[in-house]
Write a structure and sequence with these properties.
mainly alpha; Multidrug-efflux Transporter Regulator, Chain: A, Domain 2; three-stranded antiparallel beta sheet; 6 helices; about 45% helix; elongated
Length: about 160
């Protein structure tokens, strides 16, 4: 079986882009806005991420599709404020297929349930609320919107908002 392995930098950059594209942001400042190579090494030491090259059974070092899925799942669970021990337990011994299922379930939960995420900065406290599977509503002053307001926004956009 052939595996395309990527570098730690490519892993971080690719998952950061995926998070940006999907509006996945760690909830309460428990993690940095972007994943760094240092974060990846930390997740590896905490048992959240498999060793590089573990998929190949060879002596090649690098990261595979499973590592990408593990890191995406970490970010999705951080978006719900799941602590690292809970994340480790959720990812433990999962296959690539199981991780992809977890990713899909968490994305649905984030997009369809209107999960609100808080992002803090030195000057602003952002409140981000998903509306359907495509749109986010952002308050730069930390204000949240009600489920009724979210449904009204979804109606204006011509989409369905769950919840």
């Amino acid at each position: 079986m052939s595996y395309d392995l990527i570098s730690i930098k490519e892993l971080a950059d690719g998952v950061n882009q995926w998070c940006f594209d999907h509006g996945v942001i760690p909830a309460n400042g428990q993690a940095g806005e972007k994943i760094t190579e240092r974060n990846i090494r930390f997740y590896r030491t905490r048992g959240l991420l498999d060793a590089p090259g573990s998929e190949t059974g060879e002596h090649k070092r690098g990261f595979s599709a499973k590592h990408i899925a593990q890191l995406r799942a970490i970010r999705l669970l951080q978006a719900r404020s799941v602590p690292l021990e809970g994340i480790r337990a959720a990812l433990e011994n999962r296959s690539l297929t199981e991780l992809q299922g977890l990713e899909n379930a968490e994305l649905r939960r984030l997009n369809d349930a209107g999960v609100a995420l808080a992002v803090g900065s030195a000057h602003e406290t952002w409140q981000i609320t998903a509306v359907g599977g495509e749109f986010l509503v952002v308050s730069r002053r930390g204000r949240s919107i009600s489920d009724d307001q979210r449904r009204q926004i979804a109606a204006v956009l011509g989409i369905r908002a769950e919840g």
